[in-house]
Amino acid sequence: MRCAPKLATSTPISAFGLDDFEARTGSATSIIRTITGLYLRHRRAPIPRTHVVELATAAGISTAAAQTAISRLIDKQVLENGTDSALRVPQMAQAMFERGSRRIFTPRQMSAMDPWCLVAYSLPETLRPLRHQIRKHFLQLGGGLVAAGLWIFPEYLREEVDAALEALHARAQATIFTVQQPHFPATAREAAAQWWDLEQLGSRHQQFLEATAGLSADQADPAEAYRGYVGMIDAWRALPYLDPGLPDGMLPEAWPGKRSRQRFLALSSALRHPAQQFAASVLGHGLKPDRFILPVGR
């Protein structure tokens, strides 16, 4: 009898497992995770825990909540203890944040002519746990479930799909197709509504718009820009994973995703550098800017 492969903490899938899309946006744990991805991971030397707490409090988190959240992130292997009450970002978390930067800061939008990626696989009942793992990670990559064992993604996610299958030791059970145009059973909009949970995605985009409604792109004060920027990134960062960026013809009328994407790009462009200045003033020299520059136009 075959058993599902065990996913040890040393396997590549562990880096995928560090993603947390269920954490409550704005919570202390979520905010410090965001701060880690934006700033801490660029530091080669261990970071004094007091500096991390200072960055958290500057983002609106109490000292007590920050201390508790740091401990939780250590337990989740997003942070690890160094020497002399210092923290560092472990290698698996670095890989997770590296992948996250590509998604978060370059949100893509399909055109009607962009190709698609189809993934087909068949797994026996003895591998049910592996089915659940594939479903979990495919949903977090923005996949649409067409039928049991058949998923659809924008073609530009093919490498990430392939990496997830490899990490799950499921690549040998899956066939990946690249196609130019699916022929839908009814309309493209009806197919998208069936394959993706567009109602939930639309709700998350609307929540982002509401969370950033009072945020000004004209904020010049580094401390205020930092607080707004961290909160904005925290509210946004799961969306480019869960939302594949479907073409307009597959989306409902008045889709809020376009407005939230435009707001994200505008606020990021305006607040990123003053926020970086503030973080550098807390962390000291050696904080390198994120090399994933926001595009003009994901």
From TrEMBL:
This is Regulator. Residues 115-187 form the Transcriptional repressor PaaX-like central Cas2-like domain. PANTHER family: PHENYLACETIC ACID REGULATOR-RELATED TRANSCRIPTIONAL REPRESSOR, TRANSCRIPTIONAL REPRESSOR PAAX. Residues 196-280 form the Transcriptional repressor PaaX-like C-terminal domain. The lineage of its organism: Bacteria, Bacillati, Actinomycetota, Actinomycetes, Micrococcales. Pfam families: PaaX_C, PaaX_M. It comes from Glutamicibacter halophytocola. Signal peptide: none annotated.
